[in-house]
């Protein structure tokens, strides 16, 4: 099964110090073997990707537990907006359907409760696996 076909991927980004930070994400296949997902411009992922494009991806479950028998894949990631973000959003909504609306609602409620509202899905991330 291709990475883009997995329900969840464990995305590992890297802090300036080189410390890895892993997060499970939804992802959808894009053209040329690339993978896309959306995130918030206020998320840690977006902040870390702003200073390094180096990432790894690996199939996982919703909690970030990696699938047995899989290995991390080195890749690069790029933050995108505009038409590229729109294309990713279409593919994510097609793959995950109604769940996208539920997660947006839960994110909004959580932001209100924590008094720390961040935008939902206002940045796209395009992952290019290394050959």
The fourth-level CATH homologous superfamily is: Electron Transport, Fmn-binding Protein, Chain A
Largest sheet: 7 strands, antiparallel
Fraction in beta strands: 25-35%
Task: Tell me the quaternary state.
Answer: single chain
What is the rounded Rg?
14 Å
Instruction: Extract low-pLDDT stretches.
Output: none
Structural class: alpha+beta
Q: What share of residues is helical?
A: 25-40%
Could you say which overall geometry the principal axes of the C-alpha atoms support? globular
Tally of individual helices: 3
* Count of separate structural domains: 1
Short description:
The protein is an alpha+beta fold. The protein has three helices and seven strands, in the order E-E-E-E-H-E-E-H-H-E.
Please tell me about this protein's structure.
The protein is of the alpha+beta class and 131 residues long. It has one domain (3-129): Roll (Pnp Oxidase, Chain A), CATH 2.30.110. Helices cover 28% and strands 32% of the residues. It contains 3 helices and 7 strands. It has helices at residues 44-49, 82-96, 99-114; strands spanning 8-14, 20-25, 28-29, 35-39, 54-60, 73-80, 123-129. The protein has a 7-stranded antiparallel β-sheet with strand order 2-1-5-6-7-4-3. Strand 1 and strand 2 form a beta hairpin. The longest helix has 16 residues, at 99-114. The protein is globular and about 40 Å long. The two termini are 17 Å apart. The mean pLDDT is 89.
């Amino acid at each position: 099964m291709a990475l883009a076909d997995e329900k969840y991927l464990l995305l590992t980004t890297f802090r300036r110090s080189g410390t890895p930070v892993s997060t499970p994400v939804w992802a959808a296949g894009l053209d040329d073997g690339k993978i896309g997902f959306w995130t918030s411009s206020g998320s840690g992922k977006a902040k870390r990707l702003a200073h390094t494009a180096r990432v790894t991806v690996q199939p996982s479950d919703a909690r970030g537990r990696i699938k047995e028998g899989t290995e991390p894949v080195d890749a690069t990631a790029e933050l995108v907006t505009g038409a590229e973000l729109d294309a990713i959003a279409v593919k994510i909504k097609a793959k995950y359907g109604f769940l996208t609306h539920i997660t947006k609602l839960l994110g909004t409620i959580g932001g209100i409760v924590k008094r720390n509202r961040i935008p939902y899905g206002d940045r796209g991330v395009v992952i290019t696996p290394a050959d």
